[in-house]
Amino acid sequence: MNGRRVLLGVTGGIAAYKAAALASRLVQAGVVLDVVMTADALKFVGEATFAALARRPVHTSLWERVDAIPHIALARENDVIAIVPATANTIAKLALGIADDLLTNIALATRAPLLLAPAMNTTMLEHEATRAHLATLRARGATIVEPGVGFLAEREHGAGRLADEDALIAAIASVLRRTNDLAGEHVLITAGPTREPIDPVRFLSNAATGTQGLELAREALARGAQVDLVLGPTPLEPPAGARTTHVSTACEMDDAVRARAFEATIAIATAAVADWRPAVTHEHKVKKTGDPQTLALERNPDILANLGANKNGLFLVGFAAETEAFETNARDKLVRKHCDAIAVNDVGGERGFGTGANALVLLWGTDGRRDLGTGSKRELAARLWDAIVDLKKSG
Ligand code: C5P
Fold first, then answer.
1. Distance of CA 148 to the CA centre of its chain
2. Are residues 333 and 364 in the same domain?
């Protein structure tokens, strides 16, 4: 953590006094600490406590130095925004994007990862509104350090006690590690469907939207990688920091990948590439006739297999969307396409193509396997990168 920048947001709960001990631990670990306190936090703990611990001014208002636009500077300069404790009110505002004080403005203006340590009364924690807001934030990629069960200020025993200091330090350290564990890597990602034209207005395609690939690109950028994205037709916006090449057909995707592959250190093929294309693309719209029609098809290049055939040290990850015998089929693809790992998703049910949720299992070697569980495509992107980083490290 030495030399890293942490913004500690303190909100108005009784556990605010524990944030002072956390601030001290972070400073002792070499962290450069910016503390932002909400108006309610100031009712529990004094600004002076944090200023003395951080040896830096504490920020409490949007209006203290308007000329310096403090929320933008603080939002950009920090490696993580850690809100400890996070009240139900702040959690709700963050989930909804409400920005009515300095801390919530910073949370909207930052690209840094967000970590929240909720602490509140058990009934408030278990309220559907709080649970829904926490789920929204988690799906957006926030790290939630779960509160523990124990003695609460109301003199009751229950869930809602701020997580203990060691758990908070470990969680902040883990987020910080993730912010640069792909530094120096050049990642190439294929994403989206392809379109294989029959005539100027008709094509063969599939239901992929590119969501999982875009989330992997976004996460790789957040972890410090350079990212090349080769993207098939989708209405979704690619992340601003990626170098994106828009393509339509599988052949165009193959050309774009070949042009970029020599720079890449890691490639992930998430694209749902059409296996076949019409043998003939008609120049004009095909007219309706009474006769039965046959569409002749020819094979498209296998982009992933082409990458696997010329790896040159490239760490190659494939995807396998399966509806049956999915691990057996995926292991076969892993070997056949010379991948270092393959992520399998079961697209038979409600998950997979075109949906927000996904479930992935990563396979490698003869029997390597890590179940990445279920979650939003954003959460799974983070877990997949964790697994790839571990696999690369181990060999
Ligand atoms: O063989 P199958 O299409 O199931 O393999 C899926 C994997 O191969 C995915 O990673 C997909 O992006 C990649 N693929 C490809 N080019 C193709 C077909 C699949 O890159 N023509």
1. 26
2. yes
Whether residues 152 and 199 fall in one domain: no
Question: Catalytic residues, which ones?
Answer: 206
Are 278 and 217 found together in one domain?
yes
CA distance 57 to 317: 46
| pLDDT tens-place string over residues 186-202 | 999 999 999 999 999 99
Residue nearest to atom 21 of ligand 1 (CA): 302
pLDDT digits (tens, 9 = 90+) for 69-78: 777 888 888 9
Query: Where in the sequence is the domain holding 107, given as residue range(s)?
Result: 5-179
Task: Out of 188, 195, 268, 273, give the residue to mutate to test ligand 1, the one with the largest number of ligand atoms within 8 Å of its CB.
Answer: 273
Tally of structural domains, the chain = 2
CA 185 to ligand 1 center in whole angstroms: 23
Count of C-beta atoms within a 10 Å radius of residue 59 = 23
The angle that helices 88-96 and 102-109 make with each other, rounded to 10 degrees, is 40
Q: Mean pLDDT score of the chain, rounded to an integer?
A: 93
From 212, 304, 363, mutation site for ligand 1 pocket: most ligand atoms within 8 A of C-beta: 304
Same domain, 129 and 197: no
pLDDT in tens, 295-329: 999 999 999 999 999 998 999 999 998 877 788 99
278 and 156: one domain?
no
Residues 64 and 105: their CA atoms lie apart, in Å, by: 14
Closest Cα to atom 5, ligand 1: which residue?
320
